[in-house]
């Protein structure tokens, strides 16, 4: 490990400097961690086509993460590569929201649950469509370019999640109950997506970053439409505490990072 | 010594094949955006990814460098550009024909902004029947979906409009 990485606490440039390093890091970490989590479904989905679908969605998220982390790293002092950021940061330096890091299990359960997965993917992809479609007009050319590419991808992810939520919600009694249970499990983590406290207001004012709080209303409108058609209801549950943007994560984050990082840390510089 | 021109550089880069759909060149796909040769004969090639996570980009980059080196250019730089974002509308007509011959149904063109063009069905590339259905919206690569023909029962790939 090179000396500047050994502390595990990279200097994050960009706060108040007009450069969106931290902002790009937050969005990149969201996509990276979700990609890693989605990978668990490969060869474990209810059907072969779904393996392929979730793997493709994970790959899109990984691609977005690479662009965003590569850009964030280029703005840091000293600069960092996408691999430095993915593999050589510790848990407290990750800035992703809790929604993307948690296991796919129902509360109290152990196995991955498909209802939880589709609830999360609907929540997440609807949020990403709202975010990226606005970020395409960012004053920052790189963020605008990444968003223009990504918005077409996440729109397709949303279609996929919507299709499943409709099919399960408006399906059998069993599938409806389980889809609703998935929504109840994920809903506490919705609020953190719209928490604007992590975004430098200077970046919002200069048109570089999107204020996440403005995404709430269009997000709710789209989600309620899908849930109504699926004969499901918006859960009424208190929001979880959040803290992902400050580096405070859930218990499951450590396990995810251990799996994602152990090869790179055990064999630094390994290629294949 | 041969005169090294932009045209020769373009020709060399344009002949590079997509590693995942090897009947298409990167020019057919619209992945090759520009080729410039500076006064000191450094070639700058710009390519754009189809999807953010397209794993073929690293191979394409290496293949472009190799093709230009073989064409006699000593200094080659390959740059990845994201903007404007790639669309299947950039696929050449020749590319679409090659895809169809290969058994992959080519992408439909996008309509004008705000106008949704409805493709009612895809024709089976094996038997030509319009009686086909989508099996999976995601396929073997990010750019394809999987279909099946109800008439001849053969599965086939569709290059999604993107």
Topology (SSEs and partners):
The complex is a heterodimer of chains A (272) and B (162).
Chain A: H1 21-38, H2 48-75, H3 82-87, H4 98-101, H5 114-135, H6 141-169, H7 173-186, H8 201-205, H9 216-229, H10 251-266
Helix pairs in contact in A: 1-2, 2-6, 5-6, 5-7, 5-9
Chain B: H1 6-14, H2 26-29, E1 32-37, E2 42-47, H3 56-70, E3 75-80, H4 93-102, E4 104-105, E5 132-136, E6 144-149, E7 155-159
Parallel strand pairs in B: 2-3, 4-7
Antiparallel strand pairs in B: 1-2, 5-6, 6-7
Name the quaternary structure.
heterodimer
Strand order of the largest sheet of chain B: 4-7-6-5
Strand percent estimate of chain A:
under 5%
Average pLDDT over all residues of chain B: 90
H and E order of chain A? HHHHHHHHHH
Task: Briefly say what this structure is.
With 272 residues, chain A is mostly helical. Chain A has ten helices and no strands. The model of chain B has no long low-confidence stretch (mean pLDDT 90).
Please describe what this structure looks like.
The complex is a heterodimer of chains A (272) and B (162). Chain A is mainly alpha-helical and 272 residues long. Chain A is 57% helix and 0% strand. Chain A has ten helices and no strands. The longest helix of chain A is centred in the middle third of the chain and has 29 residues. Chain A is globular. Chain A starts with 20 loop residues before the first helix and ends in a 6-residue tail after the last helix. Chain B is built from four helices and seven strands; from the N terminus they run ααββαβαββββ. The longest helix of chain B is centred in the middle third of the chain and has 15 residues. Chain B is elongated and about 60 Å long. The mean pLDDT of chain B is 90.
């Amino acid at each position: 490990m090179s000396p500047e990485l050994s502390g595990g606490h990279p200097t994050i440039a960009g706060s108040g400097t007009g450069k969106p390093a931290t902002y790009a890091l937050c969005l990149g970490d969201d996509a990276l961690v979700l990609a890693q989590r989605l990978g668990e479904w490969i060869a474990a989905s209810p059907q072969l086509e779904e393996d392929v679908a979730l793997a493709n969605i994970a790959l899109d998220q990984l691609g977005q993460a690479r662009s965003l982390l590569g850009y964030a790293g280029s703005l840091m002092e000293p600069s960092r590569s996408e691999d430095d950021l993915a593999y050589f940061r510790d848990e407290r330096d990750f800035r992703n929201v809790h929604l993307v890091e948690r296991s796919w299990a129902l509360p109290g359960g152990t196995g991955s649950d498909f209802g939880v997965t589709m609830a999360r993917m609907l929540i997440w992809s609807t949020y990403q469509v709202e975010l990226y479609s606005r970020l395409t007009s960012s004053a920052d050319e790189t963020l605008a370019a990444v968003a223009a590419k990504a918005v077409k991808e996440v729109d397709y992810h949303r279609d996929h999640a919507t299709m499943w939520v409709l099919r399960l919600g408006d399906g059998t009694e069993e599938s409806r109950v389980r889809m609703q249970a998935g929504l109840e499990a994920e809903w506490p983590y919705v609020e953190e997506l719209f928490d604007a406290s992590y975004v430098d207001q200077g970046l919002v004012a200069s048109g570089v970053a999107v204020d996440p709080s403005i995404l709430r209303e269009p997000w709710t409108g789209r989600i309620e439409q899908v849930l109504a058609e699926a004969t499901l209801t918006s859960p009424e549950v208190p929001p979880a505490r959040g803290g992902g943007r400050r580096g405070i994560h859930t218990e499951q984050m450590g396990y995810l990072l251990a799996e994602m990082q152990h090869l790179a840390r055990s064999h630094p510089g390994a290629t294949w | 010594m041969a005169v090294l021109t932009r045209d020769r550089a373009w020709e060399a880069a344009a002949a590079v094949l997509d590693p995942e759909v090897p009947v298409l060149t990167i020019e057919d796909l619209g992945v090759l955006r520009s080729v410039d040769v500076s006064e000191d004969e450094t070639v700058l090639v710009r390519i754009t990814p189809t999807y953010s996570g397209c794993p073929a980009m690293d191979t394409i980059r290496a293949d472009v460098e190799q093709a230009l080196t073989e064409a006699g250019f000593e200094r080659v730089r390959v740059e990845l550009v994201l903007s404007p974002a790639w669309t299947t509308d950039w696929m050449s007509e020749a590319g679409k024909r090659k895809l169809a011959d290969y058994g992959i149904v080519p992408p439909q063109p996008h309509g004008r902004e705000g106008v949704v063009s409805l493709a009612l069905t895809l024709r089976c590339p094996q038997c030509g029947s319009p009686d086909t259905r989508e099996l999976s919206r995601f396929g073997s690569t990010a750019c394809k979906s999987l279909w099946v023909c109800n008439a001849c029962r053969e599965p086939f790939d569709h290059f999604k409009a993107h």
